[in-house]
């Protein structure tokens, strides 16, 4: 057994807690005097923290399997360049497996936009109709559908109200936008929220910027979403806090 393989097995035994106290003491003494060995130990410990014992063992077994398979083939061929080819294969195997591991870790660290959108999107609470709006049955019906989760039907009614020119335009626009998002019409919702923001700091300004950021996230326009969330995260209130939380996950 060569020194490199022996070191590898000793590192594995240490990381997995299979050394006796005396063996561990001697091994740690070696690690202190060998920067390269210390680096390898640190890498193995990091992988164990992320993957756990079982997955780390599976990862190491995959590397060993590739290396052993190539070694057997080289020994059977009696090629004078075998050692160099074997060394190259070992390097390729490790690089490929580490690349796959890195991609998996990055995937875990930053969930895809669709998952973040699903986690953070929730319909805005239903508006309570006041006495002055009692004579607007279409608005009442739209809000009733919205509150019942019948967003596609609510969207149609809100659109009808907007086209008819009835009062409460800002409120209707906002709920129309949220209904669009809840029924999968994200691009349409984006335009509605942009128009609300463009009209100045109205009743639903902060909410509209939050939903606009989510609409952009759903469309995988991450940089645009981050720009809105960054400003929003510096503001007080629920959506400032949510924006900060979402930014942290996008980092």
Low-confidence stretches: none
- Report the average pLDDT across residues: 79
Number of helices: 12
Sheet bearing the most strands, described? Answer: none
Fold topology:
Layout: H1 3-15, H2 21-32, H3 35-77, H4 82-109, H5 113-120, H6 137-147, H7 151-164, H8 169-182, H9 186-198, H10 205-218, H11 222-233, H12 238-250
Helix pairs in contact: 1-3, 3-4, 5-10, 6-7, 7-8, 8-9, 9-10, 10-11, 11-12
Structural account:
This protein is mostly helical and 251 residues long. The protein has 2 domains: 3-109, no CATH class; 117-250, Tetratricopeptide repeat domain (Serine Threonine Protein Phosphatase 5, Tetratricopeptide repeat, Alpha Horseshoe). 78% of the residues lie in helices and 0% in strands. It is built from 12 helices and no strands. Helix 6 packs antiparallel against helix 7 and helix 8 runs antiparallel to helix 9. The radius of gyration is 30 Å and the shape is elongated. 19% of the residues are buried.
Jot down its keywords.
78% helix; 2 domains; single chain; mainly alpha; Serine Threonine Protein Phosphatase 5, Tetratricopeptide repeat
Summarize the structure.
This protein has 251 residues and is mainly alpha-helical. It has two domains: 3-109, no CATH class; 117-250, Serine Threonine Protein Phosphatase 5, Tetratricopeptide repeat (Alpha Horseshoe), CATH 1.25.40.10. It has twelve helices and no strands.
């Amino acid at each position: 057994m060569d020194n490199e393989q022996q070191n590898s097995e000793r590192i594995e035994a240490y990381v997995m807690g299979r050394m006796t106290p005396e063996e561990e003491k001697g091994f740690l003494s070696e690690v202190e005097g060998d920067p390269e060995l210390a680096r390898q130990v640190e890498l193995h410990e990091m992988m164990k923290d992320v993957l756990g014992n079982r997955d780390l063992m599976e990862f190491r077994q995959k590397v060993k399997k590739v290396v052993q398979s190539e070694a057997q083939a080289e020994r059977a061929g009696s090629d004078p360049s075998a050692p160099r080819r074997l060394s190259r294969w070992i390097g390729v195997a490790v690089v490929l497996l580490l690349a796959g591991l890195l991609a998996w870790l990055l995937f875990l660290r930053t969930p895809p936009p669709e998952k973040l959108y699903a986690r953070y999107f929730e319909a805005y609470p239903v508006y309570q109709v006041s006495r002055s709006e009692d004579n607007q049955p279409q608005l009442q019906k739209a809000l009733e559908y919205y509150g019942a989760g019948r967003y596609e039907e609510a969207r149609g009614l809100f659109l009808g109200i907007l086209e008819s020119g009835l009062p409460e335009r800002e409120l209707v626009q906002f709920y129309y936008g949220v209904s669009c998002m809840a029924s999968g019409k994200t691009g349409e919702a984006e335009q509605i929220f942009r128009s609300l923001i463009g009209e100045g700091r109205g009743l639903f300004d902060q909410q509209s910027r939050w939903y606009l950021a989510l609409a952009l996230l759903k469309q995988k326009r991450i940089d645009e979403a981050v720009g809105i969330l960054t400003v929003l995260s510096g503001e007080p209130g629920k959506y400032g806090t949510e924006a900060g939380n979402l930014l942290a996950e996008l980092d």
